[in-house]
Write a structure and sequence with these properties.
Radius of gyration: 21 Å
Helix content: 10-25%
Largest sheet: 10 strands, mixed
Number of helices: 5
Order of helices and strands: EHHEHEEEEHEEEEHEE
Strand content: 25-35%
Shape: globular
Structural class: alpha+beta
């Protein structure tokens, strides 16, 4: 859903540890969020933003050592927030606080590119998305709920001029305890899920390269709380630094997107239509929609 600054020309791959991981590992590099938004940006639409599910706004989570930064805000795309949504400047400030809290990023002197994504067939909630490009090898993204300000996702896109294997590290399929510990620590520190962390499970591995040819690779884990809430966290396989955090709302939206996609695929069937001849070997398969 996002054509984020500094990432439009990058190639992203996901290498999986099992077939079962395919559905969720599309998320390793924010896959569906980035892909779908590319088709959505530029469409002018105003959708009444209302939620059918209970939703509680988070308490103030401003870092104690945070001081408001001097940055510029720029609106990207044509979609506009509704009267129920927070203002662009408010969402940008939440992004600034999150970038400071999670990655230690100071936005002073930077430009924050803001994109509003309304509710749609594939989006359960409207979001404000903030993108900050530091240089060709480093950029950040933060997404928050457009009404409540609740965290949706956080991402650090960093690329290294180093020899980084493109394939999956087979050893990490079973021996990933060090990364599991990192995932649990990050989930607890940044309150990735509601309640106590009950389990951490391997999700998948990914690889990406930017236009300059610099690279990075990652490993992702699902974190589940004792309340059943599920989120995802990713680390670099190159240097173990924290890269992405996808909160429970992001996971639910991804599952919804996969369900919609699956239903759309089921609406198509292949009908073999031949000519008037009875010779079946000459029949030509054609794809028709029901």
């Amino acid at each position: 859903m996002k054509n984020s600054a500094g990432r439009g020309n990058e190639m992203k791959k996901v290498v999986l540890g099992s077939v079962a991981a395919i559905a969720v590992c599309a998320m390793v590099f924010g896959g569906i969020s980035q892909t779908v938004k590319a088709a959505e940006i530029g469409k002018t639409q105003v959708v009444p933003t209302t939620y059918n599910l209970p939703y509680t706004a988070p308490a103030s989570n401003t870092p104690s050592d945070y001081v408001k930064k001097d940055y510029k805000v720029k609106l990207i795309g044509k979609d506009q927030p509704t009267q129920n949504d927070m203002k662009m400047e408010e969402a940008a400030e939440l992004a600034s606080q999150n970038l400071w809290r999670i990655y230690g990023v100071d936005l002073s002197g930077r430009t924050v590119e803001m994109t509003y994504e309304p509710i749609s067939k594939i989006k359960l909630r409207a979001t404000w998305n903030a993108d900050v490009k530091i240089n060709d090898d480093l950029s950040y993204s933060i997404a928050v709920d457009a009404i409540t300000g609740e965290n949706h996702s956080a991402a650090k896109w960093i690329y290294h001029n180093a020899k980084i294997p493109e394939g999956m590290d087979i050893k990490l399929l079973k021996n990933n305890e060090e990364y599991q510990s990192l995932a649990k620590a990050a989930a607890e520190k940044y309150q990735l899920v509601a309640g106590k962390v009950a389990s951490v499970e391997y999700s998948g591995q990914g690889y990406s390269t930017n236009r300059k040819g610099n690279k990075n690779s990652d490993i992702s884990f699902h974190v589940t709380s004792d309340k059943g809430e599920v989120a995802q966290v990713s680390f670099s396989r190159y240097n173990k630094e924290l890269l992405n955090m996808e909160y429970a709302s992001w996971i639910k939206e991804t599952e919804h997107w996969l369900k919609v996609t699956d239903e759309e695929n089921k609406d198509q069937s292949v009908t073999f239509m031949g000519n008037e001849s009875t010779d079946k070997e000459n029949a030509v398969p054609k794809l028709q929609s029901k």
